[in-house]
Amino acid sequence: MALLSMSVAGCADSLSKGGIGGSNVTRVEASELPGPQGQTGEAQGYVYRIGAYDKLIVDVLGIEQLSDRRVTADSSGIITLPVAGPIDLNNLTIAEATERVTQQLRAGHMRNPRVAVNLEESVSRFVTIDGEVEQPGNYPMVGGMTLMRGVAAAKGATDFAKLREVVIHRTVNGQSMIALYDLAAIRRGTYADPILYPNDIVVIGDSPSRRLLQQLVTIAPLFISPLVAVLDNR
Prior knowledge:
Elements: H1 8-16, E1 24-27, E2 55-60, E3 69-72, E4 78-81, E5 85-88, H2 94-107, E6 115-121, E7 126-131, E8 137-140, H3 147-153, E9 166-172, E10 175-181, H4 183-188, E11 201-204, H5 207-212, H6 214-219, E12 227-232
Parallel strand pairs: 7-11
Antiparallel strand pairs: 1-12, 2-3, 2-6, 4-5, 7-8, 9-10, 9-11, 10-12
């Protein structure tokens, strides 16, 4: 995948004029937008983790009071079940939550419980899809969500969408970053469909976002990889 690189020293002054609300935009040499902890390449990926107010379905085989039981995590990610009592599931994957529930049922003297935990509705983890989509809003974040799937969740792009001007906003190791994608190129398979993470903001063909990256677009009329930049809000 080709890179379109610019030196920071050579472009900082000109890019600073293209920002919004006092933000400076500095292009970085990268072929992808890193994950929230800076992960790249094969390390990219998101596994759903339970959080506050998530709705779960707990099913324990052969136990009527724990059969297909709907529960909602409290503000600390804790659920309460008969026999097991309060169970802290905050920030656990579904597999880890299943093991935690199993352990606490055993501690409550239930022999060999066969437990299944499933996510019914995600409340704590979401991605924001905005701009020229049919239904802008916050959408539950599940494992395996990508840019294309996120746009599909928002019922697709409008007829007026600028598909080559799709921006993802993300905080990476405490630093605000953005990346510009060409959704039409992704659909053609020109480059990979990027993974989304909780708290990402995706903006489809929105005028303020276009201004934010206007100069980057003009230097790369036919880019074949994402354009990644750092926002300096100082």
